[in-house]
């Protein structure tokens, strides 16, 4: 690595440079190796006189909690992760860990997910400390390891081992949202208010086995194939949750005539799938939030060419809409495939059942007054660390404000040439600063 970046008390003035320095720490998960990055953040916050504490299950993967003392109101938490996904087999114009500034962008792994957001939170917190103003309640900044691999060393562990740290916290800002997003021609700023739940299953099929020189009916392999084909080619039933309804209604309000009618039609379960088919590519996100989904991602079975295996197991990555449980999707799979393999639940991280939007309007107002566009509550198809906060009754709102111009956020996250306009890192840090100074402890 290049020499340690500077720790001085003017770093909040250039959030984009702060981001470039964060990118230079190669915190690729696995293995993560977040320690140096977290220690550097610790030094930075400490230079501003901010109190910090670290908590670690694995000493190489610490988590840092900083506290800027405020008045008696309930604290507000800002949280983000510094680990990033690998860059293997990707094409990059600039070294993904150089933090290169070129053509108006900061380039590199994590600039969007989510060192950009972390830079905003750090800049806003340092600015608050430097300004010497007292917020209504404490401002907590939590920087964690291990989000990209599930949080077993990060937030998942922290809420289990140290739930007391979250005791008075009702609201937190984190991933995912606050950036401009064009839906059916309407300019929106989604703010994540809920997310789907990861449910990993294994399904094992058993059948006749033996020497492969004889014809063998009813094999595990054949059953597995019929099952995979059924799962692959069909949707699970429509499942409309309050979170999806809030999101789609808010979008429909911004649209005219036929388009508005089309979006409202998505909320009529009799018509949902037909409208999704008609919408084509644009429908992918809505398809995901209006159903439980299941993808077969791995197959294990057979180890010898001339032996018909007795058992074959497939791995399923299922994503459940808020409030659903593993048994619900297993029931849907039984219905869909007409088959009953042996299921094993490998992982299920329960999220919040419904989005409470009590802090949404205040955040929406910050973005709307600045941009003239509309903020919408986002039910996120993918999983974030927000689910872990649900376990300690903290509501997480996706707020890392960005104006990306022509950059396709979803195509660049986890991909080659991930980059962020340098100016928008400052813009986002300003919006975060507004959020923490406006917060009065009630979210209203
Ligand atoms: Zn992320």
TrEMBL record:
Coiled coil: none
Pfam families listed in its UniProt record: M20_dimer, Peptidase_M20
InterPro entries for the chain: ArgE/DapE_CS, Bact_exopeptidase_dim_dom, Peptidase_M20, Peptidase_M20_dimer, Peptidase_M20A
Gene Ontology molecular function: hydrolase activity; metal ion binding
Keyword Ribosomal protein belongs to the record: no
Protein origin, superkingdom: Archaea
Cofactor: Zn(2+)
Keyword check for Zinc: yes
Keywords (A to Z) from UniProt: Hydrolase, Metal-binding, Zinc
Peptidase M20 dimerisation domain ranges (all copies): 195-336
Family membership: Belongs to the peptidase M20A family.
Protein known as: M20/M25/M40 family metallo-hydrolase
Organism in which the protein naturally occurs: Halovenus carboxidivorans
């Amino acid at each position: 690595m290049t020499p340690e970046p500077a720790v001085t008390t003017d770093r909040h003035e250039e959030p984009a440079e702060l981001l470039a320095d964060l990118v230079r720490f190669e915190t690729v998960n696995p293995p993560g190796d977040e320690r140096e990055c977290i220690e550097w953040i610790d030094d930075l916050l400490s230079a501003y006189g901010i109190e910090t504490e670290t908590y670690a299950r694995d000493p190489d993967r610490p988590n840092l909690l900083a506290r800027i003392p405020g008045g008696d109101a309930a604290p507000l938490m800002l949280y983000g992760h510094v680990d990033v996904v690998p860059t293997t087999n990707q094409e990059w114009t600039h070294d993904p860990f150089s933090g290169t500034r070129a053509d108006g962008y900061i380039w590199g792994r994590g600039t969007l997910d989510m060192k950009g957001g972390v830079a905003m939170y750090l800049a806003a917190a340092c600015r608050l400390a430097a300004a010497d103003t007292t917020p209504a309640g404490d401002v907590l900044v939590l920087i964690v390891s291990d989000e990209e691999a599930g949080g077993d060393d990060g937030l998942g562990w922290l809420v289990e081992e140290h739930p007391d740290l979250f005791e008075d916290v009702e609201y937190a800002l984190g991933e995912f949202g606050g950036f401009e997003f064009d839906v059916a021609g309407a300019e929106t700023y989604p703010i994540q208010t809920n997310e789907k739940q990861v449910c990993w299953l294994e399904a094992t099929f058993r059948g006749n086995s033996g020497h492969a020189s004889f014809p063998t009916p009813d094999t595990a392999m054949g059953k597995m194939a019929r099952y995979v084909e059924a799962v692959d080619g069909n949707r699970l039933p429509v499942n409309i949750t309050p979170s999806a309804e809030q999101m789609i209604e808010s979008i429909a309000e911004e649209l005219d005539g036929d388009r508005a009618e089309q979006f409202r039609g998505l909320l009529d379960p009799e018509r949902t799938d037909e409208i999704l088919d008609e919408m084509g590519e644009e429908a992918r996100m809505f398809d995901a939030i209006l159903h439980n989904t299941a993808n077969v991602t791995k197959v294990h079975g057979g180890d010898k060419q001339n032996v018909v295996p007795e058992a074959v197991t497939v791995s399923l990555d299922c994503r459940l809409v808020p409030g659903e449980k593993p048994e619900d999707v297993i029931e849907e799979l039984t219905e869909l495939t007409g088959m009953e393999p042996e299921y094993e639940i490998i992982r299920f991280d329960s999220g919040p059942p419904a989005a409470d939007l009590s802090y949404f309007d205040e955040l929406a107002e910050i973005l709307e007054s600045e941009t003239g566009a509309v903020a919408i509550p986002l039910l996120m198809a993918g999983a974030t660390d927000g689910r872990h906060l649900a376990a300690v009754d903290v509501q997480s709102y996706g707020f890392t404000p960005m104006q990306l111009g022509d950059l396709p956020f979803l195509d660049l996250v986890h991909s080659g040439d991930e980059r962020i306009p340098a100016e928008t890192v400052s813009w986002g840090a300003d919006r975060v600063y507004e959020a923490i100074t406006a917060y009065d402890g009630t979210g209203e």
